[in-house]
Design a protein that fits this description.
The chain has strands spanning 2-6, 9-12, 17-24, 32-38, 45-50, 57-59, 67-72, 77-82, 91-98, 113-114, 118-123. By secondary structure, the protein is an all-beta fold. Strands 2, 4, 5, 6, 9, 10 and 11 form a seven-stranded mixed β-sheet that branches. 33% of the residues are buried.
Length: 124
């Protein structure tokens, strides 16, 4: 399984970025997908997740109303649209795939496959 994340970069406060994560060697449509992030010196946290059928989503309180997760099963790709970015959104963002997400809060242990991470820096 390979997950390739892209779309990170440097953006000013209030700007937008769209992260993409494309999966290969994976039955993508059968997996839950998620975005986690790890700010400098902090633990990895769940940002957003989407169920295999896209009927179920999760957003961290800190990003609700600003971030949108979506998926295109035909292209084996999950997206994270990030709007109204804040300095506290600065982190390395990781996409992840898994089949064990049952509770409300996605846990790192619910996702077995991880991308390499893409840096998002929001400058003030």
């Amino acid at each position: 399984v390979q997950l390739q994340a892209s779309g990170g970069g440097v953006v000013q406060v209030g700007g937008s970025l769209r992260l993409s994560c494309t999966a290969s060697r994976l039955s993508f449509s059968g997996y839950n997908m998620a975005w986690f992030r790890q700010p400098p010196g902090k633990e990895r946290e769940a940002v957003a997740a989407i169920g295999w059928s896209a009927s179920r989503t999760y957003y961290a309180d800190s990003v609700k109303g600003r971030f949108t997760i979506s998926r295109d099963n035909a292209k084996n790709t999950v997206f994270l649209q990030m709007n109204t970015l804040k300095p506290e959104d600065t982190a390395v963002y990781y996409c992840a795939a898994g089949s064990s997400w049952i509770g409300v809060l996605p846990r790192t242990t619910d996702f077995r496959s991880w991308g390499q991470g893409t840096q998002v820096t929001v400058s003030s």
